[in-house]
Amino acid sequence: MKRIDLFKKHLEEKRAVKIIAGIDNFDAENVKNVVLAAEKAGASAVDVSASEEIINIAKENTSLPVFVSSIVPEDLAMAVKAGADAIEIGNFDALYKKGMRMSAIEILDIVTETLKLIGK
């Protein structure tokens, strides 16, 4: 079974829980601990920042699917190449705390550019 299949199964069962380490959390030790805790707790997936090092740490320390969040298309394309099981545009809560707001047009542009970069 591929990693992402676990998440899909949990979605179908209406019990999916994704643990978010943080879009701007680049603390390797902290991310490792969050990932290990998510695995131990029986989560469905983990979500980490767009850093090849962080993605590798997550994949090395869990069998859960690894989601990567960013608002930068190039970072999301890198995440796909680095082995992320899914990419996510956002985690907007972290951005709101920094006073950032994104319009629907900006989000559309990010999606379009990301899909172009990953060849979809």
Element layout with pairings:
Elements: H1 3-12, E1 18-20, H2 28-41, E2 45-49, H3 52-61, E3 66-70, H4 73-81, E4 86-89, H5 92-97, H6 104-117
Parallel strand pairs: 1-2, 2-3, 3-4
Helix pairs in contact: 2-3, 4-6
Q: What does the average pLDDT come to?
A: 93
* Major beta sheet, strand line-up: 1-2-3-4
Overall shape: it is globular
User: In percent, how much strand structure appears in the residues?
Assistant: 5-15%
Low-confidence stretches at least 5 residues in length (pLDDT < 50)? none
Name the helicity range. 40-55%
Distance between the termini: 24 Å
Class by alpha and beta content: alpha/beta
Largest sheet: 4 strands, parallel
Q: Treating each run of at least 4 consecutive H or I residues as one helix, how many helices?
A: 6
Order of helices and strands: HEHEHEHEHH
From the alpha carbons, calculate the radius of gyration and give it in angstroms: 14 Å
Count the beta strands.
Answer: 4
Characterization of this structure:
With 120 residues, the chain is of the alpha/beta class. The protein is built from six helices and four strands, in the order αβαβαβαβαα. The chain has helices spanning 3-12, 28-41, 52-61, 73-81, 92-97, 104-117; strands at residues 18-20, 45-49, 66-70, 86-89. A four-stranded parallel sheet has the order 1-2-3-4. α4 (73-81) runs parallel beside α6 (104-117). The longest helix has 14 residues, at 28-41. The chain is globular and about 40 Å long.
